[in-house]
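Model: You mentioned two targets. I'll fold them one after the other.
Researcher: Yes, keep them separate.
Model: Target one:
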Amino acid sequence: MGRAALDVADIFRAHGPAWRQAQHGHLSLGQLKVMSAIEQCRSAALGGHVLRCDACAQVAIAYNSCRNRHCPKCQARAARRWLEARQADLLPVDYYHVVFTLPAPISAIAYYNKTLIYDLLFEVAAETLRTIAADPKHLGARIGVTLVLHTWGSSLTHHPHVHGIVPGGGLSVDGARWVACRPGFFLPVRVLSRLFRRRFLEELATAHHTGRLQFLGECARLRDARAFAQWLAPLRECEWVVYAKRPFAGPAAVLAYLSRYTHRVAISNQRLLALDERGVTFRWKDYRATGKTRYKAMTLAADEFMRRFLLHVLPSGLHRIRHYGLLANAGRREHLAQARELLHVVPTAAAAQPPAPVASVAPTFVCPHCGAAMIIVETFVRGEPIRAPPTLRAAA
């Protein structure tokens, strides 16, 4: 048999207790909760079920998941549920992928002001897209936008940015027609970048003036208004990274992309290579390199790996997927119906069919030996020790 797969939970279980003690008073309650959830995920600590295969009578134990949104093990099912809900929103048009990134100096102060900076990133990116799209010189239409927050770079550094998925067109101002963008081109990124930079810095200056920004450590000097103004000045001159990719190859490609991005965490277990006396080794992508040399291995001390992972714990209640314009929750159904009518979309026969019978739903647990459904024969609660697998007589 091959080596068991390494996951983030193994690192936290092996090195977390000592590191928590060394960092006492420096970790937030949210970070401590994430560590605890990941360490206990799919272990006896959270309880679980004893399963038996209907076909081959194999017995197995399935432990409960923590369902924490930062846990690498718990995102696949959440992503599937979200995607099923989004499939009905797709329109028969090209979709574009846009990215808005904050410069490194703002990333530095964002760590101590996560809610404020991340909210601004969402709101200003959405405002920028909608403003430029509404301009008759560019598109002259009301558009819909879905934005997804990522806070990490490939090496786990703090790198806040939002990925946007945007239909290639929108409703005219009077709502009487669908306005499509030019084939293969959505909006000019240079114009988007300049407006994004100006509006973000205006909002950041307002936040400082009203005392809503915190400055700690090396950034403490920025509490002074004059020092903050001097710090902002270079940011008004440098280029801010905003880019748009080519349109997706159809609605299926949009969903495939969303399934990879909407519920992603800072690092997946698949990128972990080793945990040994040197530390944690993982794969990362060097965007400054080209070709095969972009993909490299990095080794960090276990303490540094955990520190970087926990940089990306989001504030409680902060939504990392948001919809704007035509896709905003308040009027999405009506706007999409109007768009389909203008695009002459005929309702599919599948949409008119009744829901599939319960019997056709895929089983929750599948036997790894024969692929048949497994049934729950026993449930154990959190923290309850596991007995030996039940005999067939006891499970019957």
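Model: Target two:
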Amino acid sequence: MMKVIKLGGRIQSDPDLVAGLSALWKTEPGSFCVIHGGGDEISSLQRTLGREPSFVNGRRITTEEDVDLVRMVLSGSANKRLVSAFSAAGVPAAGISGEDGELLMAEPIDVKLFGRSGKPIGADTRLIRLLLDSSILPVISPVATDAASPAREALNVNGDDAAAVIAAALGAELWLIADVPGVMDENHRIIEELDQATVDALVASGTVNNGMRAKLEAGFMALTAGASKVRIAGLEALSGNESGTLLSLTPIMT
């Protein structure tokens, strides 16, 4: 089964990440693509330049001045660092962004509130399939093209949202790999399966917020749009076990 594997920014610094993904690729060549974030690196660079990062419900506010910075980090340093690491591990990889081949088309979420942050509205997966058919691992930066812009300007898209749209377009499984082993309850135990009603209750109680809330919203969007399965997990999932939290559109009986 085809998989879209989204890597959170923090998990990218884990020394076991590239080894785990490389082992999976060598076992199942051509079976997945990787989408990465880089939020902490963007925030660090913003602060270096005297700009304070701002978020709403786990999604970044991106000013006009920040767009090139986001491109530089996500489509530049973060992307190429991963490509180099995969190449060193013996996995041929190509770094691309959502702007390449109109892979990701998006529209602004709310210009007054979020600025140049966008919501993906569609994915053209031909470039991904071309690379996979050539046994090359696609490593994707979630910078998208503004579908309404005659100049095809860039929009900063949340990596989880980008992965959700791509997984739906491919009819693939979506694995959201994070620096936590799954969605945790109020007692810090992994919740093995979640439906939308339970997620709403966790958000209302404050148990789930910010980045995890964004992951869950993206996960259910992916399932609704055609992804075959969505799992939120840590690196353990790369070894093929059923760890983490599985999302379900069907109400879970308790």
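Researcher: Noted. Anything on target two?
Model: The first strand starts at residue 3 and ends at 7.
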